[in-house]
């Protein structure tokens, strides 16, 4: 493992890196001391990226640039803690670029936190982890794993599979060329233009799934309280089983069998069975040919 010496030292020297420092009112138990720090590091084409923060949002996207550009927005309880906090930028022997926060004594206090904005030419393989904050990913590739305890997750134009989880927040995955898995404890889920398998669940919120024309499925969607709307493309194949405890089921583009709260549809031949289930809400299925 090697540390990126020049950009890393820029982060470490607080007198230089405090590009903007805002001192806000309040007592020392709140994160009233803030600074924005920036750095630029050499890019390695096709390499993976991992961003780890606590109590902060992450915005990672492809841009028409030659290097990796990192902006960190720090919040600390005291000026001393702010000055002692650094951003770790490390690239290991395999090429993995890891961006994280080094808090004084290795511990973050109270509502201290760090938001990251990262721009780079490309990346293949993404990991983003935050204990509390919005996550955004756009224009990159490879397997992507995104997790936050409290915040919305947005992914757009990703070339690869995506796994997204939030305990409380809306998840939107758009134009993904791969399988997706999205889970929220409390929040709506929208999976739009999905080229592979779609698997999703939420305890409270609607689910909307629109498969790409090239996706064969299957689809798994479950919510405890909310409607489910699914559009299947022309290459989808398989049986779709639908069940709701309280709500109607509507099917267009195919003939359905069953009763008011439980129906099934067979599309094409073969394929894994798809399951759509809600405890309280309607189900709407559209089959395109």
Shape: elongated
Count of domains: 2
The chain-level mean pLDDT equals 89
Order of helices and strands: EHHEEEEEHEEEEEEEEEEEEEEEEEEEEE
Strand content: over 45%
| Alpha-beta content class | mainly beta
Distance between the termini: 52 Å
User: Roughly how much helix do the residues carry, as a percent range?
Assistant: under 10%
How many strand segments? 27
Sheet bearing the most strands, described? 14 strands, mixed
Radius of gyration from the alpha-carbon trace, in angstroms = 22 Å
Number of helices: 3
Low-pLDDT stretches: 1-28
Strand order of the largest sheet: 1-7-8-4-10-12-14-16-18-20-26-22-25-24
What does this structure look like?
There is one protein chain. This protein is mainly beta and 289 residues long. It has 2 domains: 128 residues, no CATH class; 138 residues, no CATH class. It is 6% helix and 52% strand. It is elongated and about 65 Å long. The N terminus is likely disordered.
């Amino acid at each position: 493992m090697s540390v990126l010496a020049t950009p890393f030292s820029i982060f470490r020297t607080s007198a230089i890196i405090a590009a903007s420092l805002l001192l806000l009112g309040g007592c020392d138990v709140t994160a009233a001391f803030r600074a924005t720090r920036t750095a630029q590091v050499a890019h390695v084409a096709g390499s993976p990226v991992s961003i780890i923060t606590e109590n902060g949002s992450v915005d990672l996207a492809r841009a028409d640039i030659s290097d990796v550009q990192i902006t960190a927005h720090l919040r600390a309880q005291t000026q001393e803690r702010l000055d002692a906090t650094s951003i770790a930028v490390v690239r290991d022997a395999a090429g993995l670029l890891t961006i994280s926060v080094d808090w004084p004594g290795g511990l973050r206090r109270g509502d201290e936190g760090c938001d990251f904005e990262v721009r780079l030419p490309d990346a293949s393989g993404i990991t983003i982890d935050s204990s509390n904050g919005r996550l955004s990913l756009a224009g990159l590739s490879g397997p992507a794993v995104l997790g936050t305890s409290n915040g919305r997750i947005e992914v757009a134009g990703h070339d690869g599979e995506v796994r997204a989880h939030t305990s409380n927040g809306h998840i939107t995955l758009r134009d993904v060329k791969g399988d997706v898995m999205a889970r929220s404890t409390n929040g709506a889920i929208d999976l739009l233009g999905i080229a592979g398998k779609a698997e999703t669940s939420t305890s409270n919120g609607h689910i909307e799934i629109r498969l790409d024309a090239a996706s064969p499925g299957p689809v798994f969607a479950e919510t405890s309280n909310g409607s489910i709307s699914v559009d299947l493309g022309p290459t989808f194949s398989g049986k779709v089983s639908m069940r709701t405890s309280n709500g109607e089921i509507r099917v267009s583009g195919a003939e359905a069998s069953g009763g008011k709260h439980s129906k099934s549809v067979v599309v094409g031949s073969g394929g894994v069975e798809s399951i759509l289930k809600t405890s309280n809400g309607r189900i709407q299925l559209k089959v395109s040919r």
